[in-house]
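Continued from yesterday's entry.
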Amino acid sequence: MPDRAPQPVDRQLPTEESRELMALVRDIAQREIAPRAAEEEEAGHFPREVFSLLSEAGLLGLPYDSAHGGGDQPYEVYLQVLEELAAARLTVGLGASVHTLACHGLAGFGTKEQRTEHLPAMLAGGLLGGYCLSEPASGSDAASLRTKAVRDGDDWVITGTKAWITHGGIADFYTVMARTGVEGPRGITAFLVPGDAEGLTAAAPEKKMGMKGSPTAQLHFDGVRVPDARRVGDEGQGFTIALSALDGGRLGIAACAVGVAQAALDAAVAYAGERRQFGRPIADFQGLRFMLADMATQIEAGRSLYLAAARLRDAGRPFSRQAAMAKLFCTDAAMRVTTDAVQVLGGYGYTADFPAERYMREAKVLQIVEGTNQIQRIVIARHLAGPESR
């Protein structure tokens, strides 16, 4: 791979503190994450030590209240941190996004006592979280989940199976959605479940085409007993909590997608400047120059779209439609950009000696997780034209 270092993204950050924060993130990404990314992904190694470092640096609780160990950062800053981490290694960027998603329920809907007891360790105490909504037969149709929580005195007993859980089997805690009442969205409640709870086991991690270093596994709840003090929000409020978390989570996926696309563009530009054919660098050929220009334009458009949605969120305004648009556009753009990066590198792009093929494999999953892009189109259309006729 050419040694030419990519130029840092020219970011418009709101404060001097956020600029210093981004410099710290870039340093960690270039020094601790990127150099080992390819080797560790190929080996399927999860970099728990990197997440410990991020926690120590205060980077796993950025959008949350500093009173509980968070960073008091607006979403527009937090998402750009995710982008930088994902550009270095998607396993890390997406892992940080999922951890933030797992903390959302307690931070936004928990009682004062719950936040005081649990959030400091979750946000800055070295813990790692997982988010449990999907099930083997309940993916896009999340409101049809079957995992049950039955009241038993001051406890709840959870039984069922969750699927496609990032950090499944290694997380220290999970935010779990379970059915406590009627069918449909109104019968779902959220719980904070310790990762070492008795009766909680993980299946073998899925064998994936990309993100091999990030474990994705089914979780089996065999009579897992959880105190009512770990119920998050009111009974029946779980689906509302889940959707609220996913709005922010989709922006996290969008930012990660832009990070992967940016890494692919950087690799393509570096290669095109050094690879010579017909006596000159291939970057001199108009067809390839236009490809690079299109790639850069899609990345810039995606970054602008997710930041516009983040600023709505930071201002306390509705942003669900914009979050769906950002997730849709940024992940589709990442798929196109990474595919084009492989093409720019030609035969070398198809080999594991260069990172382009890894970026392409990783980009694919971003079109699927936290609501497929077909679901995002449904969400956007409902905002425009109302619900479908029955």
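--- second protein ---
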Amino acid sequence: MKNRLLITVIAAVLLAGVAIGYTVLSGASPGEAAHSLPVQSGPRLMMLSNGRLSTASRNDPAGPREITEQRCDRAYGAAGTISCLRPVGALKAGELAVLDSQLKELRTVPLTGFPNRTRVSASGRMVAWTLFVDGHSYAANGFSTSTGILDTRTGTLVQSLEEFTVEGLPQLPVDANFWGVTFTADDNRFYATMSTGGHRHLVEGDFAARKVRRTEHDNVECPSLSPDGTRIAYKAAVNGDPQQGWRISVLDLATRRITPLAETRGVDDQPAWLDDRTVAYGIQRDDGLNDVWSVPADGTGEAKVLIPESSSPAPW
């Protein structure tokens, strides 16, 4: 028993070290004082400012910003539901915190791993997350992820999509990984990435039936469904090789047409749709801080800084 306790403590300390490193990279500075200003009423954007949940006016995203004391490594919100992947503590693993619009804690789910992606369905009902269990980059070989989904209405919790059946496969390949969930409007179907055998498939899932099916689309990572449900923004590995970086692209689900967007730099993020015309994402600067950028979803225009020194954008 003592040996097990010692191993648990050591693992928690190691995870805490990873989390601290991640916090630095994501632009979070625990000792930095937040400068919060009131935001005018109207539509808002949610983001993380130095690791703190914040909001800004959608009409003036680079303007005044209301900054809370709630810290997250990754966050996303919709329809009054906030998903916050909390940092790892010195003697504990991390957790998913589901919050309401007043930051009241509705539920927590203990997690072990490196926070990476999270999404909330448009209705606010479904929450998904992805963690790195081994490794810390999708460009590396041998990484392992854990992706779960919570139905906040029924309380149904799926700790890992690896519990689901994959159509056409008698059993899940040992090298299979899932990440980057995005929900459809019915709160049951979803899209995600499934990697196996060197391929990164776009899969469509059925939460109630506990199954996923591989689509014909390969090289689709971190999908994000447009508000009108017709297109998916995602990151596509350059020349099919993640070690060469990723290009933000948009897939039309009806025509199967793929449109690379005007952002030509490598983007390792799950895009977020601000509306049916605009996609946002985070890019890390040379000084280690992040900025949120936006770009037209039709391949025209140019990428522009939307919210400086921030990450995890979401229309709110």
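The chain is about 10% helix and 45% strand. The longest helix spans residues 2-25. Will compare against the first tomorrow.
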